[in-house]
Amino acid sequence: MEMDSNETQPTVVVSSPARRISLRQMTLSDVDHYMVWATDAEVARFCSWEPCTSREEAIKYITDSVLTHPWLRAICLEDDRPIGYILIMPVDNIRKEIGYVLARKYWGKGFATEAVRLVTAEIFKEMPEIERVEALVDVDNVGSQRVLEKVGFTREGVMRNYIIMKGSVRDMVMFSFLPSDPFK
Ligand SMILES: CC(C)(COP(=O)(O)OP(=O)(O)OC[C@H]1O[C@@H](n2cnc3c(N)ncnc32)[C@H](O)[C@@H]1OP(=O)(O)O)[C@@H](O)C(=O)NCCC(=O)NCCS
Fold first, then answer.
1. What domain range is 63 assigned to?
2. Whose CA is nearest to atom 41 of ligand 1?
3. Within-domain flag for 7
C-alpha cells in the first residue's frame, strides 16, 4: 500500500504566529502518530468516534475518512510531528462547524487554542462566503469550551437534548464566531 499518497488535496502548511504549531494535510505515513490520540479513550470521551483498536483500523480510517475529508489538517509541532487534528465540517453554504482533537500529553499547553484561532482566521479568507463558524461542545467538556472562549467565540446557549452520543442524550453548548468578531 502507498503509505503517503494524498493526491486529492494539495499540501498546504500554515504556521501559527507563535510558530509553536503548524497545520498541514495528514497522510497515511502519519498513522503511528494518529494512533497515539485515536486509541485513547479519554480523548474519545466527548467525540462521536470510539477509540481505535488496531493499526489496520487506523489505516482504514485515515484512508476512508481523513484523506477524503473536505477540510482537515494535522496539528504539528516544530518537527512536523502530528499531535492532533482540526477540521471544518460543512453545515450549509454559509455555516461551517469546527472540531479538534489533541493527544492527551499535549493538553493544557495552549496548542488547541492556537490551532482554533489560526483556522478560524484562515477559513474566512479561504471561503469568503462563510458567515459563521460554529462549534457544538458537550456541556461537560469544559476544556473545549474554554478553548473557544479564549479564541473569542460567543457562547450562545445550551441546546437541550440535542444529540445522542454513545447511547446517551446530551445537552450541547453552541458557540459561534462571525467574520466581524474580534479575536481575543
Ligand atoms: C479539548 C482539547 C482540544 C483542548 O486542548 P488543549 O490544547 O488542552 O487546550 P488549551 O491548552 O488551548 O486550553 C484549554 C483550557 O481549558 C482549561 N481546562 C481544561 N480542562 C478543564 C477542566 N476540566 N475544567 C476547567 N478548565 C479546564 C485549561 O486550563 C485551559 O484554560 P486556561 O488556558 O485558561 O488555563 C483537548 O482537551 C482534547 O483534545 N480533548 C479531547 C477531544 C475533544 O474533546 N475535542 C473537542 C470536541 S468539541
1. 14-177
2. 43
3. no
CA–CA distance, 59 with 62 (Å, rounded to integer): 5
Alpha helix (H) residue ranges in 2-151:
31-38, 41-44, 55-61, 111-126, 142-151
Which residue puts its alpha carbon closest to atom 24 of ligand 1? 142
Residue 144 Cα to ligand 1 midpoint, Å, equals 5
Task: Evaluate whether residue 3 is within a structural domain.
Answer: no
- For the chain, 184 residues long, give each residue's pLDDT as a single digit of tens: 333 444 444 566 777 777 789 999 999 999 999 999 999 999 999 999 999 999 999 999 999 999 999 999 999 999 999 999 999 999 999 999 999 999 999 999 999 999 999 999 999 999 999 999 999 999 999 999 999 999 999 999 999 999 999 999 999 999 999 999 999 9
Atom of ligand 1 nearest to the CA of 37: 39
Question: Residue 93: inside a domain, yes or no?
Answer: yes
Query: Does residue 146 lie within any of the structural domains?
Result: yes
How many domains would you assign to the chain?
1
Cell output for 141: 467538556
Provide residues with CB under 6 Å of ligand 1: 43, 46-47, 99-102, 107-113, 137, 141-144, 146-147
CA distance 175 to 184: 15
User: What CATH number does the domain containing 171 carry?
Assistant: 3.40.630.30
